[in-house]
Amino acid sequence: MKRLGILLLCTLPAAAQLEVFTVHGTEERPVSGLVAMGETATGEPLQSVIRVRNASDLLATITTLSVTGAGFTLESAPSLPKSILGKFSIDFYVRFRSATPVADARANLRINSLTVTFSAAAVAAPTLYLLESDGTRTLRTAGVPSVFSNTERGLRSSRTFLLENPHDSPVRAGDISVAGDSFVWNELLTGPMDLPPRSSRRLEITFQPTTSGLKTGTLAIDNRRYPLEGVALEPTPPKPSLSVSEETLKSGKQVRVAVRLSDVSRANATGRLRVDFTPSVTGPDDPGILFPATNSRTIPFLVRDGEPVGLFSGSRDTILQTGTTAGRLRLIAEVGGFLTEAEFVIDPAPVVAETVTVKRGIEIMEVTVKGFDNSRTPEQVSFRFFNRDGVEVPPGVLTSLIAEKFRTYYETTTVGGMFQMLAVFPASTTTISIAAAEIEFRNRYGISRTERLTF
């Protein structure tokens, strides 16, 4: 029997192809054996962005990724094994840092079977530390911000830096400067600054903002830039107090209200003044209690740097209308987290007749009285009329009981204690001889009389 021979032909996939680049901004540069990283100061990092691309259409896997050489490390490197799809890439860093000077440091980067050589140098330079209040110190590297304490605008805070020469030979800081309109030296410093071996020099920088907000600056030592940051706060306004032009408030008045500050303000802030009212009588609220400038019970004010009072549209006080209802009035001012208030009692009072107008006919006279009763308790009104010679016109005093009519009126009115009353007087003869009148109101809290009104 003949044997049957079977030949199996297997097609093996082509190996995935890896390409290596350095990345500078948006530019890729192919790596061809040696990457010269350049020169840095001792203690300062120097790094290159490395991009590994799978140039094939097949899946590629990185199983080896390492760097060997004193001072060299990998940063943001992927965990292994790492697969890369066709035409895709990954990035990581090769970083160099040396605490001692070195003219030509070398390292080998291995990516699977690929090897790339890196070279770098470190030049002797002083090291910068930030001194904390407890005496500890924090190493500063170029590009890493040093943050100052939050400071009120117009005040200042300082931080202490330590410039140290850790080497056995002298080093020089050729150019030292501070930039930024809110950051200055505590003492005038000019370069160059020579530091003997194993010596140090304190640098005091002051943060003194003139406006609020985030402030930035830079401490420059030769070609190294150390960012400075601080937040300038708006000062807290002084504590407010309230001042009213009248010690005792009465209905039907306009008084001036001021917000005074415990000291001249260093702050710019917005505050609010409001009035609360609790009537001591039954019935609807009194809409006449308000600030005319806003036609409401609240009004804003400004606290400005250099002012001892709050400003209402540029004025140092504002008008409060006391309305026409008895009760308890409370003023509240709020600014900068402070709250202050003042309370006033508007006592019930006799009726106030503000205006009186007369309309005469041949055998009739109409008298219109506009006024208010802040207690809402009118009980009686009386009229006396006089001729041109000042003699009282018969039959003398004319009285009307008005309590029930006013009670009904005040149950529904929306104008506080205000009223308008029309009194009609029929006459048996002409009223042309009547030339004056006196009006008297009586309510629960007393009697009020008008002067003799001529017409």
3D structure, described in words:
There is one protein chain. With 455 residues, this protein is mainly beta. The chain folds into four domains: 18-123, Immunoglobulins (Immunoglobulin-like); 127-233, Immunoglobulin-like; 240-346, Immunoglobulin-like (Sandwich), CATH 2.60.40; 352-454, Immunoglobulin-like, CATH 2.60.40.4070. The chain contains one helix and 39 strands. The chain has one helix at 403-412; strands at residues 18-24, 27-30, 34-41, 46-54, 60-62, 65-68, 72-75, 82-84, 89-96, 102-111, 114-123, 127-131, 137-140, 146-147, 151-152, 157-164, 171-173, 176-179, 183-185, 193-195, 200-207, 213-221, 224-233, 240-244, 254-261, 269-279, 289-290, 298-303, 318-322, 327-335, 338-346, 352-360, 364-372, 378-387, 398-401, 418-426, 434-443, 446-449, 453-454. The strands form ten sheets. It has a five-stranded antiparallel β-sheet, with no helix packed on it. It has a five-stranded antiparallel β-sheet with strand order 13-12-16-21-19, with no helix packed on it. Strand 30 (327-335) and strand 31 (338-346) form a beta hairpin. The chain is elongated, with a radius of gyration of 45 Å.
